[in-house]
Amino acid sequence: MVRFxxxxxxxxxxxxxxxxxxxxxxxxxxxxxxxPAAQAARPLRAPDVRxxxxxxxVVRQMLRLAEVGPGDVVYxxxxxxxxxxxxxxxxxxxxxxxxxxxxxxIRKSEANAHAAGLxxxxxxxxxxxxxxxxxxxxxxxxxxxxNLNLRLRPRLLRELAPGTRVVSYWHDMGDWKPERIxxxxxxTIYLWRIPPRAGE
Length: 200
Known about the structure:
This protein is an alpha/beta fold. It has a domain at 56-193: Vaccinia Virus protein VP39 (Rossmann fold), CATH 3.40.50.150. Helix content is 34%, strand content 16%. It has helices at 8-11, 13-24, 36-40, 56-65, 83-92, 103-115, 146-159; strands at residues 73-77, 95-100, 122-126, 139-142, 165-169, 180-182, 189-193. It has a seven-stranded mixed β-sheet with strand order 3-2-1-4-5-7-6, covered by helices on one side. Helix 6 (103-115) links the parallel strand 2 (95-100) and strand 3 (122-126). The radius of gyration is 24 Å and the shape is globular.
């Protein structure tokens, strides 16, 4: 008696038929690796810092130190719940952009902007701050770690226009001397201004 082994295609036939039926059923989709909704639901990679909101009084100190006004575009790199871009728009008349790697915080930021009636003046982008474009900023705000400030420093100096203000809460930029340091009310805030480039 001759025994025939079932074909691997035959063994997987039932599963394949089920997948095809699901794929062809009206309104049914299977999320794949390139599905935008699936990508938006997860972080691009592990965050570089533990989320810790900047106190609101410090947010105002940072924006005042940078002399933010209606003509400014304020980028917050690692924007958390969106409080810095939202405050820049609501209290200083600027436009705000937040760059954040955590999609949950992006959703929270957008909800906060809508609640404040500022959805037309602020935007939040689910991006890695080390890859994001921010060359149109006139002010950049940071609350990161010292090593991350140093890692960002070459990009800030290379890509931002001369005169752009950079403000950091707590951490400096190594041997890049700040223009001003505000240590009022137990908060240390550093201000730098992007210098003219050689030949400009």
